[in-house]
Amino acid sequence: MEQRFKQADALRGLAALTVMLCSIFLIFPVFFARTQGQSGFLLLNLLKHSPISLIWSAHSAVILFFVLSGFVLALPFTDRLGEQRYVPFLFKRICRIYIPYIAVVLLAMSASMIIPRIDYAPDMSVWFHSQWRIPVTMEALFAHLLLIGQFDTDAFQYTIWSLVHEMRISIIFPFLMVIVMRLNWKFNLLLALFCSGLGHAGKYVLFHLYGNPTPPLSSFHATIHYIALFIIGALLAKHRTGLISFYQKLGRPVHVALLLAAVLLYTYDTWFLPSVGRLHMWIVNDWAIAAGSFLLLWWAIASKSSAQAGLVWRSLQGLGRISYSLYLVHPVLLLTMTRLLYGLLPLWLNVILGAAAALGVSVLLHRFVELPAMQLGRQVERQLNRRDYARLTEPDIAGK
Q1: Domain that holds residue 329
Q2: How far is residue 169's CA from residue 173's CA, in Å, rounded to a whole number?
Q3: 265 in a domain, yes or no?
Q4: Quick check: pTM over 0.70?
């Protein structure tokens, strides 16, 4: 039985919460305003352009999700590489990702058709007004049902772009782990850099040859880049015993310095010379955030500090359990509640009620959709593994 790290569950829950906080902030126009260097916006600028952005940085949270996925998915492979079967793994992964995903996508499409639109609200952002403006068509429905194609992931549920990459990489992950387990960490790191560079080159080609400056978030070149982040998580899983031992031999000042470096790297794209474009290319930002995510996860599984101990608190573990459901359903609830109650209650209260509804519905979605999907995946995995074992151990009667 592979080792389970409850701290990783808590990190995933906190990351999902930061994505929801980002969605809340995006509703307000002031969050998009250029306030850096202007007087009268001290608190807002601290929130937007300092490491405090840790609490709302959705993109950093998604990078952390990818590193966490690489780590968690790699654990059984690092213990029993030869015993892992491709079909059972893939079916279990499809159940885990796809069934809750499609339930929420259908909910979002239904809500976009039913919930009345707000033509113009000066106290809401342009981003808010851009949501649910695309009609539901058979083409859009098919693209969302397929999931792994290249399509407009912002049309009905804007957080699903990361799931496109999760599912694509899940399809090749067992093969990726064969490479990770056979190569040393240096070659694996080079492989990660190669994947990232290849993905970035794909974006460059699209821009310069085809005049496509903003490829969709679900683009295939982005998937190639994000493979690097899964490799980083898998490397931590592979070398976890040695890394945990090494961390615990370090002194407290080094522990504090590593945690501080983790936070600074994780929020790099919001505070480090944000006006210097070359320092914030897509690939640079993501590698800085990935390094911070690696350090955060390393701290979470290795540290014995009181702060790390808080990750196993019951409330954070509960948040970790519903993290996927919260990540999926909160956009639908925020948009629905804000639209329905607009003009009846203050906007700030609408947003609070939407967030509370998102948390409540996430619990229900986890209980009645996510858990049964996970159980189905485990049951089919066991049956397929038993069938494979029986086939391998069946006596060769014909050959006697």
Answers
A1: 6-390
A2: 6
A3: yes
A4: yes
